[in-house]
Structures are given as C-alpha cells and as structure tokens.
Write a structure and sequence with these properties.
The chain is mainly β and about 400 residues long. It has three helices and 29 strands. The strands form seven sheets. It has a six-stranded mixed sheet with strand order 1-2-22-21-20-19, covered by helices on one side.
Length: about 400
C-alpha cells in the first residue's frame, strides 16, 4: 500500500506541475521538464572540466591479447572481454594494467556460461556474476564455480545489472523481443539464490515498444533503463514520460519529465538518461524510425540540462587530452555506466593513439602513454569518472 500511495502521489505531482508549465523547459524543486521536439541551442563542453579521466594501458602478452571490451571496473581490477563471443574473460590490475589471469568457462554444463553474457563484479565479496541465457553463474575472482540460479521467469532476461548493496543486485527484468511489457520491472535480487527481494514498478499508461519489427527482422537501439548516480540510481521505462531517482530509502522521485507525452506522438520520440552529475543531466532522445535496407542507426540527439543555468543544450563533448577536438560519447560503452564511480569506459586502440602521437595531437598523460606503445599492443582503457 505504501508503494501504491507513493506512485499515486508522484502521478498527481507531475500532473499539477506540468499543467502549470508555460515554457518548454522549466525547473521545479523536484524535477525538470524537457520538450523532446524542441530545437535547443548548441554548446561545446570539455570533458575534463566536470569529469576525471583515467587511462590504463593493458599489458600485452601472449595470454592476454584482447579487444578491450570493458565488462566491469572495480577499485583494484578490470574485467575485459573480446567482441567475438569466445568466452574469454581477462582480469587486469587497474593500477598497473598488468594481466592477472584469464578465465574461460564457456560451455553447456551446469558450471559453465553461454557465449553471450554480461558481467557484474562484486569486489566486496570477491565474486563475479555472469548473466547469461536464463541463469546467473557465480565464480570467485580466479574463475572457480561457486553457485548458479535461474531467472525468476523463463521468458525473461535480466538487463542493466549492477551491485546494489552487500546482499543484492539491481537489474531490469526485460522480455524478448520488445524489452518492455506488463511484467517488466526493476528488481532487487539476492546474490545468494536470485530470489526477488524487491520489485520496483514505475507508473505508465500503456506499453510503448521501442523495437521496430519488419518481417523476421527487428531493430532495437542502445538505450538505458538503469543508470548508477553518484550514490543512488536513475531508473525509467520506455513507456513512461518520467525519469526517476531511486534512493536507498526505497523512495521513487521524478527528476525529468518529458513533453509531449509519449502516447501522443507519431513517430514516437523516447528520452533516456545517460549520465547524471551534480551540475549536468545528460540525456538522449531516440526517434522510433529506421530503414532496414540502409540502416544507419536511429535518429537521436544528445542533450544536457545545466542545473546552474537552468537551460537545456544540444551538446558536443570533447576530450581535452587531444588537441584536435576529439569527441567523446557518454553512451559509447554497451553498458554505459559502470558503477557509482565510473560513468563510462572507452576503448582506445593502440594504432590510433600512435598515429595521433606522431601527428602531435595528444597532450598530458595520454601523450606519455602513447609514446611508449607498439602498434600491436592491447588497447588503452579510458575511464570517465565523477569528479571527487
């Protein structure tokens, strides 16, 4: 009853405030509103002005050759995989970039994982959670099997998984092929047996699907329904007009409300969070429109709300360690946010850095690292972090 009462209060609050808004973008004490159809002024931002950046050159050796796909970042280690689905999991020291071990438990057995998986690192409990088809497999940091448990619904899959606290994981219970349906929800699950400790249902009018289906083919853009904030969580669903803050006190509060309402639009334009900082709210619009024959991605815009100036911009973000205005995408990593510290990771190929170094386009620490690289070296991992 408390949850229902909280949701009803949120809906009432949104209705009252939106009814009193005369501008496309405004701010109240609780949330902002963003018109997804508006044309916003353009703004250039420098990443290092509001984020910290860390570069980690991955050690190169025969046992640790990899393509630099970051799956998890801890305080002490990185977990890296390849783009190809070969089952290899590489564990690197975060400080030195030294390869520590390679794990591969690919297979169909009860102690193995499938070829498509996501990884959650639980450094506090010294465990790795592998989210694969219909089950979660748990290993120690050396790759020794500890336990496994199935998803609560054989028709669902878990997406956007993160460590929530010492005893629970947070993720989104999604469904093929449309991700969202009446059963989908954010959930907290036990790390020990996978049981649902809490289901977080957000209000919506009707299911709005983002996936485009044409015959036997389907297209789904990259988007984020769960994003770690600096301490708590940003959550939403595709069918909602609101992006919410979810706190450790189990309270759900709206932080961004989009207009016009999603149900009134054709074609639909969705609004998703990417990164939320103390000052900036980075968000992305995605238009439900695609040509299967010449698919070049869904039309989208990267927007940012500046809470100090109370205004929304369409932004371009640059890495100041490049002198030639190298752009950065805060949604580049497939998992986007990594944890409460690291908002995204970017893989920098050695040969690209060497070329930029020779052309005099690098500065600061990145220039030093590139000067010591060989073209056959492993990638350099760039971590974008909240400023301390």
């Amino acid at each position: 009853m408390n949850t229902i009462r909280t949701i009803c209060t949120i809906i009432l609050s949104i209705t009252v405030v939106m009814g009193s808004c005369n501008q496309s973008d405004s701010r109240s004490d609780e949330f902002i509103t963003v018109d997804v159809t508006a044309n916003y002024p353009e703004k250039e931002l420098i990443l290092q002005d509001f984020m910290d950046v860390e570069y980690i050159p991955l050690e190169m050796s025969d046992n640790f050759v990899n393509q630099g796909v970051v799956k998890a970042v801890g305080k002490e280690i990185l977990i890296i995989t390849n783009r190809r689905r070969d089952g290899d999991i590489f564990v690197f020291d975060r400080t030195t970039g030294k390869g520590l071990r390679k794990i591969n438990r690919l297979g169909q057995g009860p102690e193995e994982y499938s070829d498509s998986f996501e990884v959650v690192l639980d450094e506090e409990n010294q465990e790795i959670f592998i989210f694969n088809f219909r089950k979660i497999s748990v290993y120690d940091l050396s790759g020794n099997f500890k336990r496994s448990f199935n998803y609560v619904d054989e028709m669902c899959y878990y997406s956007y998984p993160f460590v929530y606290d010492r005893d629970h994981l947070i993720c989104h219970k999604s469904y093929f092929i449309d991700v969202e349906n009446e059963k989908s929800a954010h959930i907290l699950i036990s790390k020990q047996d996978g049981s649902i400790a809490r289901e977080i249902q957000l209000p919506f009018k009707e299911i709005i699907k983002l996936t485009i289906v044409e015959g036997n083919e389907s297209l789904t853009p990259t988007f984020y329904l769960t994003v770690p904030g600096q301490t708590d969580w940003i959550i939403m669903r595709t069918s909602s007009d609101t992006i919410y803050h979810y706190g450790s006190d189990d309270k759900i509060n709206p932080i961004i409300v989009r207009t016009p309402v999603i149900h009134s639009m054709d074609p639909k334009i969705f609004l998703f969070p990417t990164v939320i900082t103390n000052r900036y709210y980075f968000i992305r619009t995605i238009k439900k429109e695609a040509d299967f024959k010449i698919f070049k991605g869904f039309p989208h815009k990267d927007l940012v709300y500046d809470s100090q100036r109370n205004i929304v911009f369409e932004y371009t973000l640059y890495n100041d360690d490049f002198s030639n205005k190298q752009t950065v995408s805060l949604g580049q990593n497939s998992g986007n946010a990594v944890n409460h510290e690291v908002v995204t990771s970017i893989t920098l190929n050695a040969f690209d850095l060497i070329e930029a170094y020779k052309e005099g386009k690098l500065k600061n620490k990145l220039k030093e690292i590139a000067g010591e690289l060989d073209e056959e070296d492993n990638p350099v991992i760039m971590l974008v972090k909240h400023k301390k």
